[in-house]
Amino acid sequence: MAKLLSADGIVAEDRTWVDADAPSPVAGPAIYPLAYWLAHRDVLPADSGVWLDVDAEPAEFAEVIPTLALIAIRFDAFTDGRGLSLAVLLRSRFGFRGELRAAGSVHEDLVHYMHRCGFDSYLMRDDSDLAIARRALEVERTTYQGSVITPEPAYRRVARS
Amino acid sequence: MYRYDTLDKAFVSQRVEEFRDQTQRYLDGKLSDEEFLQLRLRNGLYIQRLAPMLRVAVPYGTLSSTQLRKLAHISRHYDKGYGHLSTRQNMQFNWPELAEVPDILAELAEVDMHAIQTSGSCVRNVTTDQFAGVAADEILDPRPYCELIRQWSTSHPEFDWLPRKFKIAVNGADSDRAAVDVHDIGIDVRKASTGEPVFDIKVGGGLGRTPVIASLIRTGLAVEHLLTYLEAILRVYNRYGRRDNKYKARIKILVRAMTAEKFRDEVDAEWVHLENGPGTLTQAEVARVCADFDRPNLAAQPAPAQPLAEARIANPVFSRWIANNVYPHKQTGYAVVTLSTKVPGVAPGDVTDRQMEAVAAWADRFGLGEIRISHEQNFVLPDVPEAKLFELWQEADAQRLGTANVGTLNDIICCPGGDYCSLANAKSIPIAEALQRRFDDLDYLHDLGPIDLNISGCMNACGHHHVGHIGILGVDKKGAEWYQISIGGHAGKDSSLGQILGPSFSRADVTRVIEQILEVYLDCRVRDETFIQCFRRIGLEPFKAQVYGQAA
Description:
Chain A has helices spanning 34-40, 82-92, 111-116, 130-138, 154-157; strands at residues 3-6, 9-12, 16-17, 30-33, 49-53, 70-75, 99-104, 121-124. Chain A is built from 5 helices and 8 strands. The model of chain A has no long low-confidence stretch (mean pLDDT 94). Chain B folds into 4 domains: 6-110, Sulfite Reductase Hemoprotein, domain 2 (Alpha-Beta Complex); 142-292, Sulfite Reductase Hemoprotein, domain 1; 308-398, Alpha-Beta Complex (Sulfite Reductase Hemoprotein, domain 2); 413-548, Sulfite Reductase Hemoprotein, domain 1. Chain B is of the alpha+beta class.
């Protein structure tokens, strides 16, 4: 069972992940592949989530983004930065206000960067050390750039001299 | 130079502690090799053929005498008493112990230095003209803009995991000593008619397997938009750059696949959303960083007791050094001095702890305590009073840093090659050494005039062989080391890529082939035509005929 790190701390995975191979409706909260959700959204519960690959084009489903309760971005490798740009776009350009979840290859040493890109929950690999990930999120960090969570860069936030 | 404020210091300290924790977890077996690889690369730590290699960032090649003394100390206590000046103006240590690297980083932090993003698929150390701020032909000092870019790109949450490494260079002079045309982003800063700084942005240049000259996609960008425009470029690259093949992952491949026009349109479409947003630079921030690079008015120099011309006549070797290693300063009475690391028997760019201490002492005595590292792997002292040149030259010569060979055939750019690097196909240092021993006659070198000879041990082109007037590339032929030679490359305002002469040579033949190439030049040159001018007039054929004979 994958573990979830969220604003509530370390909790059990709270939704069923529906694969893209043969998707079908499941009982209870779930995360569906985007294409399946788009085709069946009228009959799926309103709080269903969708998941995207890192190369998804948000412009192609822009109108539904603000209505979604949860979007998960699936990383095949934690080194694939496309998912970070996708998160930034969903948050800062496409008006996504729901829960943004990182899934797949999510590394505990990188969650604090992901948080700044707009993620707020992390579905970690089974071998991850969630205590390290949680600690990484809790540390107050000195940063230079603006980000999704703090749009102002350091020079607009603090007096520099 | 830039002075760290409390935020900069806090940032670096935090990064040191984070890396100490990661290293400990790796040593405890809690991080796999593959995981730690990615984390350590973002802190400049490679595992090389023989030992780890730590690449310390020297932002845009500027450092203080205090910082250089710290590097000397690190080389003594954690390494084998020397360091290596890299072609990205950084300093590398080849023999640190992995477990001691966090301590080295903590020592660096004491003098406001670090190794962040000197490797890995992220934005690397921003480079510039090694004569920035002092060159007589400078329009604007590019370093404040390098510093603004450095801060913006450091631990950027969105752009730390790019398809491949990303190199930015900025130039602010008439000449281009920063080679902006062969960078992922090359920036020329100039003055608009209003006197304000404006930026011309080029993208998609690079060396490596597929050498490309960058394409100009924006002219006259105002300073407040510099970082948001870069953000737009990086976002397009991060999303669409290839990740399936590391040899096709640099931005140059994306720009070429899309065409420069289409790439520019994508960037502009992205920038529309960022222009005038919170990432826009404020006047106060630009002024704050620029102020750190304001140069004090140097004291007017009294006329020297013995005029330079007299000293030159009395000492021809000193005269050669003045001609080759000394560049005009903005202010009369001062000079910019390049201290050559290129002497036979020493790998190009290698410097001992004693040499570092000596350079730091000269920087204090003959300047404002500032030192530069050039991408040609030499040290530069930017503010030497002309009256002190002879004294400096004598002392530098005693430390084997006074060779009068800057810009000559002998001033070879050379990567660490197969002696150290696990990527190399062939050794490069022994080639450099053999050439330096063969061409050690300063009169002959002077007669040859400016020639850039660059050596890379593999296609990754860390030795910039594509833009050497003569380039040498190590290749692997069935497990043996061979060398491919190209001619006609050039880095500068009129950049060009070298053309391959023909089939490659064994190590034993390389020196002979270079001799033959030089013979063709000396036979064919007209008046004071330089090697590259001559090549551009006569082309590759005469060189081919000489080296391979008529049959080729």
